[in-house]
DNA sequence: TGACCATATAACTATTTAGTTATATAGTCA
DNA sequence: TGACTATATAACTAAATAGTTATATGGTCA
């Protein structure tokens, strides 16, 4: 996938800027991603679809709370679910999501590394995680 | 940029899952994106760096409110600023951000389109925005 | 210097949200 | 059927957040 092509498309969808409505939708989705417990849930679901109990094992916390977070992820369109007998199985709705998380993960990781370097005496810098061959931008 | 390579990198950074610390950082960034006014601000800054007054022109609202949102974007690491005499000029800190927004924009746009089709009589579907050649996943 | 910009921040209110406990819903299995 | 399991939801509290008005900070220009 080509980045500029993609953004070109996004602009083409809204040549004179986004509508309030779609901006609200986009914000909703980002907000759904803006909570550590929900990120933990998604990390689990990136591995494979999972029932609530399985998710609960991965995240800890109370069942009620995880259930609520799942509802939020669902209303943000990030996960879907189906009933399977007694259980409810959730999965990642949108394949672009993993990509999305990776981009932020990468950016945050890079910045953390830069900060670490700024705090690290120059002499030791070459020993700090050398392999950052992947760039997001 | 290759998606799988990118996510591979993200996983490599945290082979046994993210730390609480970095998950919190990532959430902070997503949360900063989870508000329509802030998205509006970013839309303006994607065009070019801009002073607060210029941003204000693009977004509307009060100066105090925009200033507060800029502070939030800044603390999330999404924008930077420099003083220029009387003014403060803000710009997008991270080139991956535009990409990020494009991915979500695209996903939301695609879903909206699917919903629209679901609500549209079959006979008219072929007339609905045909060109969706770009895919996010 | 003083009047005037541009921007940031403080103090406040109303709303939203995460987390809790208790309970409701609905499937399974004896 | 009744006990049990899995999940969702309601009601509540505490904390976070968006927006407001008023004010502080710091540059510019006469």
Coarse morphology of chain A: globular
Ends of chain A: how far apart? 13 Å
Q: Which regions of chain A contain 5 or more consecutive residues with pLDDT less than 50?
A: 1-15, 128-137
Question: How many DSSP-defined strands of chain A?
Answer: 3
**Strand order in the sheet with the most strands of chain A:** 1-3-2
Major sheet of chain A: 3 strands, antiparallel
Instruction: Output the structural class of chain A.
Output: mainly alpha
Give me the Rg of chain A, rounded.
Answer: 19 Å
How many individual helices of chain A? 6
Multimeric organization: homodimer
Kindly report the average pLDDT value of chain A.
82
Q: Which percent bin holds the helix content of chain A?
A: 55-70%
Order of secondary-structure elements of chain A: HHHEHHEEH
What keywords describe this structure?
mainly alpha; homodimer; globular; 137 residues; disordered N terminus; DNA-binding; 3-stranded antiparallel sheet; 6 helices
Describe the protein's architecture and organization:
Two copies of one chain form a homodimer. Chain A has 137 residues and is mainly α. Chain A contains six helices and three strands, in the order H-H-H-E-H-H-E-E-H. A three-stranded antiparallel β-sheet of chain A has the order 1-3-2. In chain A, strand 2 and strand 3 (87-92) form a beta hairpin. The longest helix of chain A is centred in the C-terminal third of the chain and has 24 residues, at 96-119. Chain A is globular, with a radius of gyration of 19 Å. The interface between A and B is large, with 55 and 54 residues. The structure holds a DNA duplex (30 and 30 nucleotides).
């Amino acid at each position: 996938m080509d980045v500029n092509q993609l953004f070109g498309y996004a602009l083409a969808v809204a040549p004179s800027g986004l509508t309030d409505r779609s901006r609200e939708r986009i914000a909703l989705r980002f907000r759904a991603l803006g909570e550590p417990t929900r990120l933990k849930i998604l990390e689990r679901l990136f591995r494979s679809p999972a029932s609530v109990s399985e998710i609960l094992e991965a995240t800890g916390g109370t069942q009620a709370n995880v259930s609520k977070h799942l509802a939020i992820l669902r209303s943000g369109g990030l996960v879907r679910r189906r009933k399977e007998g007694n259980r409810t199985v959730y999965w990642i709705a949108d394949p672009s999501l993993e990509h999305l998380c990776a981009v932020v993960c990468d950016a945050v990781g890079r910045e953390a590394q830069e900060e670490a370097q700024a705090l690290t005496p120059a002499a030791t810098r070459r020993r700090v995680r050398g392999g950052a061959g992947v760039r997001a931008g």
